[in-house]
Each structure stands twice: as C-alpha cells, then as structure tokens.
Amino acid sequence: MVLTNQSLQSYNTFGIDVSAKYFSEIKSTDDFKALITEPGFEKEEKLILGGGSNILFTKNVDGLVIKNSLPGIKIIKEDPYHSWIKVAAGEPWHPFVLYCVERNLAGIENLSLIPGLVGAAPMQNIGAYGVEIKDTCEEVEAVNMATGEEEIFNNAACEFGYRESIFKHKLKGQFLITAVTFKLNKIFKPNIHYGDIKRTLEEMRVQEITIKAVSDAVITIRSSKLPDPKVIGNAGSFFKNPVVSRKLFNTLISKNPLMPNYPQKNGEVKIPAGWLIEQCGWKGKVVGNTGAHKSQSLVLVNYGHATGHEIYDLALQIRQSVKEKFDIDITTEVNIV
User: Fold this and answer.
1) Is 217 inside a domain boundary?
2) Using one digit for the tens of pLDDT, what is the confidence trace for 54-86?
3) CA neighbours closer than 13 Å in the CB half-sphere of residue 161
4) Which of the following is catalytic: 112, 165, 237, 297?
5) Can 333 be counted among the known catalytic residues?
6) Same domain (yes/no): 81, 172
7) 163 among known catalytic residues
8) Is 205 among the catalytic positions?
9) How far apart are CA 319 and CA 333, in angstroms?
10) Of 91, 109, 139, 333, which residue is the catalytic one?
11) pTM to 2 decimals?
C-alpha cells in the first residue's frame, strides 16, 4: 500500500514534522521489487528509511519514501569457534544484540543500545567503545534499485571506513540492504579498555567479565550520557570524532595538555568531537528550539518545535566554532536530507 502526503514526524527520532509525497512500508523483498517497478513510481526519487535514528529532515520529501521493515533472524552456520547469523535489515539493532548476548555469541556486545535497524549498521559502519560493524560483518545482501537484481557484498566489497561504507558514498541511494550476515565468536575476548567500560564494570562490582556484563555496562553508560529520543528528539551523536595528523595533534596537545586522544595505527590521532564542542562552550547551550544536550555536547536535540533547518544551522555554528578554535573540521555522522 502506498500512502500520499504521509507525515514523517513519527518516523524520525528528531521528531521533525515533514511529509513524504509517497510512502510505503515493505516487509518482503518481493514487495520492494514490485514497488520500484510499478509504472507510477519508476521515475520518483526514492529514499530508504530505516529506524529514522540517523537522519535529519530539512524539507519535505518530493518522492517515494520506502520504510524498510524486513523481518527475520536465523543462525545459518556454525563451527566450534563461530556462529554465522543472517539478520533481515528491518530488525531493530539493540534487540538483535541482546539475541546474541543471550546465546553467548561475542563480537557486538559493545554496540548495545545503539538505536536504529540492522540495515543501517553496515551502511554507517556503526561503532562504539572500540568496536565497529566491519569487525563482524561477513556479507551484505542488497537489491539494486535500478534493476531489481539481488547482489551480495562481502566485507571487502563494502569498503568500510570510519562511520562510512560504499553504501553511504559511492553507491548512495542505489541499493536497498535486505539482510546482513554476521560472524560471531563462541570464545569471548572482552574489549573493555575503550571509554568508561572498565570503570563501569568495577562500579557495578562485576566478579566475572562476561558478554552480558560488558553489554550491561555499555547500556548503563549510554543510558547515563545519551537522552532517550522518546523523551527528547535527537539522533544520538551528530558529529564524527575527527582524526587528525600527528603534526596537528602535537600542536594542539601542547596548548591543551588535557585533550583526550586515541592514537591510530596509521600514526594519526582520533580526538573526541564531544570534548572539542564542549571546549567551545556549547554543552547545555539552548538556541531557540534546539541546542547541545546538557550531558553530552555531541548530541543535538529538538526541544519540541525545532525545524530541521534550525538544527542544521546550529550544527554549522558548532562546526565553525570548532574550526576557529582548534583548526579541526568536524563532519556530521547524521545524514542530512
């Protein structure tokens, strides 16, 4: 079924009140193929919408918005050390993580409580606390929106980068991701040295570091730092953490000795964008109907009646102030439409 002039306010976690010329929710690959080949919609601009947790609408969508609700989780292969799980793109991400935690399958527990759907995970190469999707993604199944043909992308073909992939840039808007296969570990090697995980485990008085304990610690941290989109509109981290040259970092650290930093294998250095933004005075600052959250300056929020343009303008102001103070150009993690 295709709806016309459909409000998208409930389909994006910022709660931006825009509408789509046409809107359809798909629950099977066949439904999708039939939709994109329907004569009335062949020439319409198409936008794939997942959980709406990483998108900022700045205008109405003059085209067809397709809500990906493909369901299903299945263990497709096992050996003594690994399990391969195929997950449909429309499955919510966090419940899938819990599905793996309950079965003692390791690899994505550090990605607990990230909002959105599974289909967006490889597109964004989502990551947190030292773990990224590229570490466990075996392959991605997708449908070519121009031809209707199904294609499979292995890990290398996805061209994963920091918060990006081939689907976000080179092939942007050309494919519907239908399923993702993950290779997860039966032998658990905890990754707890990034962020506050180790300290949180100690505060929780965890006696044995298990997959569930790490997941619980991550949930505790994220719940304390990030506002619930159901309570206040937001899309989580709005900006990527910038990676700078060693030369620039040396200049910055000499002036800012307390600057947190994470050296990279290639010699560059990652700096938390939230810290940079906070140093520029944005943490908790309210600008009209929007602002940077009081607990995490990396999160821009909608206090109830903000437009997408208001939030985008705030983002530009923040970027400019960070550039002026630190000579670092922070870029958006959220997709702007």
Assistant:
1) no
2) 899 999 999 999 999 999 999 999 999 999 999
3) 13
4) 237
5) yes
6) yes
7) yes
8) no
9) 13
10) 333
11) 0.85
